[in-house]
Write the structure tokens for this entry.
Amino acid sequence: MRQHVNPLSRFYQSYIDIPCPEEIFANPTFPIHLDIGCAKGQFLLDFSSIEKKWNFLGLDIRSSLITFAEIERKKLGIDNLHFFFCNANVSIENWLLKLRDNQLQRVSIQFPDPWFKKKHRKRRVLQPSLLLAITSAMKPGGELFLQSDVFNVIKPMVDMIQLTACYDLRVDGKLWIEENPFNIPTERERYAQERDLKIYRSIFYRNKKTLCSSVLESN
Ligand SMILES: C[S@@+](CC[C@H](N)C(=O)[O-])C[C@H]1O[C@@H](n2cnc3c(N)ncnc32)[C@H](O)[C@@H]1O
């Protein structure tokens, strides 16, 4: 089992300037899928090889994983994908402000580190400020996909998203979905599947409602 890093420690609070799409993608006009906590990036390496008319950005707080992912990406010659080392809660917001209207069309947070204890909730990856930044950058129709094998990890994330009132569920109204809609497993998803662990998944669609940041103030 890998050791989690503490995202609140001083080292991980440094801001990393993630370049704008024009500097990192061969065709910067494609819609963007952002995967937060991508680890070694296998999900994005697979997805970007199939969806050639999308750009993919993978972020992770562990630099050794990103170094590995970038080596693989370069080996495969993939030009619609990039990986960066950063603490998503420190560095994403500025990058989202660099995007063109409607460029961010999908965000995934898959099997986030399980910081169970209430006293550690500020270490969890989906903080109110990050959700607000994503919600501001996303136009109606944009997708937000979450999955985890730990109910107590995904439930507070789902609750926070619903609290914004800025996202709708699928047309069938289901909060929990059985299958991975992209049909491309992450490393942790494979691990969970091989052990028959229950996986909780939710997909949300950005609606037209205007974001009211005060609803997340108590989180
Ligand atoms: C349990 S792993 C899951 C990796 C991958 N998504 C998967 O499903 O196989 C969670 C990942 O999130 C990363 N992570 C945790 N907090 C983060 C943060 N604040 N910013 C960016 N990445 C973070 C961790 O380093 C780790 O690689």
User: Anything to note?
Assistant: The CA atoms of residues 40 and 69 lie 5 Å apart. Residues 10-216 form a domain with the Rossmann fold fold (CATH 3.40.50.150). The first helix runs from residue 21 to 24. The mean pLDDT is 94.
